[in-house]
Fold this sequence. Notes:
Layout: H1 2-16, H2 42-45, H3 48-51, H4 61-68, E1 77-80, E2 86-93, E3 96-103, E4 110-117
Antiparallel strand pairs: 1-2, 2-3, 3-4
Amino acid sequence: xxxxxxxxxxxxxxxxxxxxxxxxxxxxxxxxxxxxxxxxxxxxxxxxxxxxxxxxxxxxxxxxxxxxxxxxxxxxxxxxxxxxxxxxxxxxxxxxxxxxxxxxxxxxxxxxxxxxxxxxxxxx
Length: 124
């Protein structure tokens, strides 16, 4: 009985001590700004200002994120202001903010305007 417990314990610790896999960390050639979880990769971030010209007043939130190429990125943001000028602010990377202003009285909400905020956009 003692040997069975010793072997099971040894097998447990041996099985749990596998070498962790190396995670891909962006190097200086792919990112000049440190990114936190849920933030946009630099290659995609560079495209955002160029894609702003494709936005049109009256677009839905889904259409805006698809146009900017951010639809599949999990972002965290804040919504403030009255329903007729509801500001949705997102930090895409440190110092790179994206403010989307919607008329939230309509369903779905319709885009009124967009603004890039922060000093980080100058470093990109």
